[in-house]
Every structure is written in C-alpha cells, then in structure tokens.
TrEMBL record:
Top EC class, one word: transferase
InterPro entries, A to Z: Dimeth_MeTrfase_MtbB
Protein name: [dimethylamine--corrinoid protein] Co-methyltransferase
Catalytic activity: Co(I)-[dimethylamine-specific corrinoid protein] + dimethylamine + H(+) = methyl-Co(III)-[dimethylamine-specific corrinoid protein] + methylamine
Classification of source organism: Archaea, Methanobacteriati, Methanobacteriota, Stenosarchaea group, Methanomicrobia
UniProt EC number: 2.1.1.249
TM segment ranges: none
GO biological process, one term: methylation
Source organism, top-level taxon: Archaea
Family statement drawn from the similarity comment of this UniProt entry: Belongs to the dimethylamine methyltransferase family.
One family name in Pfam for this protein: Dimeth_Pyl
Pathway where this protein functions: One-carbon metabolism; methanogenesis from dimethylamine
Keywords linked to the UniProt accession: Methanogenesis, Methyltransferase, Pyrrolysine, Transferase
Length: 104
C-alpha cells in the first residue's frame, strides 16, 4: 500500500488525476507515461493537466468521479467509483461486489 499511496499522491492524488493514473498503473500494469496518456485521453485533457488541481477539479465534477471536498449532489464513494469505471472503461472489483450485493 505505501507505494500505491506515494504514486497517487505524487500527482496530488484525488485533488487532480493521480488516483486515476495509479489505478491504471496497478490494474493494467501500465508504465506511468502510458497510464497518463490513457487517462488524459479518456477524460479529455492534456497529460500535463492531470497534475493541475484547478483544471482537474472541473473535470472531476463534470464526470462525477469524486472530489476531495464533497459538494451537495455530487457522487461520492461507490457512486464515484462506478463513474470512474465508465470514464476509464475498466472494471473495479468493489463496484462489482456492490452490484452483486444488490442482486441478493
């Protein structure tokens, strides 16, 4: 866990795009450059904007993929993770688990 935390917080974590890049690095075994390019393309920004808190705040709110300071009516927790699945075209285990729990 310490390495994942260092990688995600190195690009300001959830304040910008570090958490998304780290997710791609660890889940898809991408190198950091490849992960940045993939995430930037999927969320519609330049790779350099991924570490810009101001630019990514708007992107994160627009896509509903979570922000540090919660805003009324914006997705949080599992709802934000489900939006991350859509935005990055990936599967997240905890979201699958949640969907399976709903079926019971």
């Amino acid at each position: 866990m310490p390495i994942a935390h260092i990688m995600a917080s190195g690009m300001t974590g959830m304040r910008a795009g570090g958490d998304l890049v780290a997710r791609m690095e660890f889940s898809k075994k991408m190198k950091i450059k490849e992960a940045k390019e993939y995430v930037a393309k999927k969320v519609g920004v330049d790779p350099y904007d991924l570490s810009d808190e101001y630019a990514m705040r708007d992107v994160r709110e627009e896509l509903g993929i979570g922000v540090i300071t919660s805003m009324p009516g914006t997705p949080k927790g599992t709802a934000a993770k489900m939006n991350i699945e859509k935005a990055l075209d990936i599967k997240i285990n905890s979201c699958d688990f949640f969907r399976n729990q709903l079926k019971k």
